[in-house]
Amino acid sequence: MQSNLHEVYGYLNSSQLINHDVAVDSWYMEFMEWATEPNQAATADDTFTPSRTDSNAVFSQETEFYTALYTWYRTNVGARYRGSILWASEACNLDGNADAVPAGCTLSEGLKASRFNAELSLAATNRGTDPTTP
Q1: Packing angle, helices 27-35 and 62-73, rounded to 10
Q2: What is the pLDDT of residues 21-31, one digit of tens each?
Q3: What are the boundaries of each domain within the chain?
Q4: In a 3-state reduction of DSSP, which class is residue 2?
Q5: DSSP characters over 12-52
Q6: Which of 113, 112, 84, 77 has the alpha carbon at shortest distance from 98?
Q7: CA distances from 67 to 8, 63, 83, 133 (A)
């Protein structure tokens, strides 16, 4: 899943359909910046591939990824993106901060849905048709 999130972010930042004057807003990239900070206590014991300092770093273990993501998501740090992440386990979804994982929340079920925000370019939307189609 993590490699797919990297691919979507890369596509949005390179596609001609996207207005590159407006930054792509990605919870995943914000989360990974937080997770790979050298002094991040929440992920200090987690392993990353190829390494924590690589720009394409991903968590080596899926369980570490979801645990760290939930730690980030349930605090003020990730609060801005709560509307962009939908957990598969309903009990995991939060409206406010939580000191611990709520009863009934099964992080290993992963995410049901998520979203990144990007602005379409005027050229891609001005006629409502695909410019490559005759």
Answers
A1: 100
A2: 899 899 999 99
A3: 2-125
A4: helix
A5: HHH-TTB-TTS--B-HHHHHHHHHT-TT-GGGTT--EES-T
A6: 77
A7: 22, 6, 18, 45
Two tokens at 14? 């390179």
Q: Check pLDDT > 80 for residue 2.
A: yes
Q: How confident is the model at residue 132 (pLDDT cuts 50, 70, 90)?
A: low
Which pair of structure tokens corresponds to residue 78?
């990730």
Confidence at residue 6, expressed as pLDDT on a 0 to 100 scale: 83
Nearby residues of 15 by Cβ (< 8 Å), 6 or more positions away: none
Enter the pTM of the model: 0.85
SS3 113: strand
> How far are the Cα atoms of 13, 34, 39, 52, 122 from residue 44, in angstroms, in the given order?
30, 12, 7, 10, 44
Contacts of 53 (CB under 8 A, 6+ apart): 36, 38
Q: Which residue has the tokens 């309903």?
A: 90
- Give the pLDDT band of residue 128 (cuts 50, 70, 90): low
